[in-house]
Amino acid sequence: xxxxxxxxxxxxxxxxxxxxxxxxxxxxxxxxxxxxxxxxxxxxxxxxxxxxxxxxxxxxxxxxxxxxxxxxxxxxxxxxxxxxxxxxxxxxxxxxxxxxxxxxxxxxxxxxxxxxxxxxxxxxxxxxxxxxxxxxxxxxxxxxxxxxxxxxxxxxxxxx
Length: 160
Known about the structure:
It is a single chain. Residues 121-141 have low confidence and may be disordered. It is built from five helices and seven strands; from the N terminus they run E-E-E-H-E-H-E-H-H-H-E-E. A hairpin with a 2-residue loop joins strand 6 and strand 7 (157-159). The strands form two sheets. A five-stranded mixed sheet has the order 1-2-3-4-5, with no helix packed on it. Strands 6-7 form a two-stranded antiparallel sheet. By secondary structure, it is α/β, with parallel strands linked by helices. The chain has one domain (2-159): Ribonuclease Z/Hydroxyacylglutathione hydrolase-like (Metallo-beta-lactamase, Chain A). Helices cover 23% and strands 19% of the residues.
């Protein structure tokens, strides 16, 4: 088993963790960062209209092959678990390849959905445009939530 913390060890926000085991990969969170690569305030503007590729080029998005919209999907990726409905944990998930399954608790799913509905054309939409676009609704409809026992299976991984 291998654990990689892509973001979030020397900063607040921007969390992204990967676990690899037996040739399979699972991710936990892909949040916006609270500081830009130069150390200044990043804010909820999410790059102020910066594309995902530009965020990757500037080091704002972590370099992870096979997970972003512009990449060929890495079939070893079982999915991503979004821990809770704070933007520093899910705010960049809109850049993920559509073939990657999203997993979260039902409460988290509802809060993200409500945030998207309430944000309209506001700050959150600027940060992560897919929050209110049709594509986000598609992604939310594909979300798998934990069962009544609180346990979820993500490919070969079991999350208690």
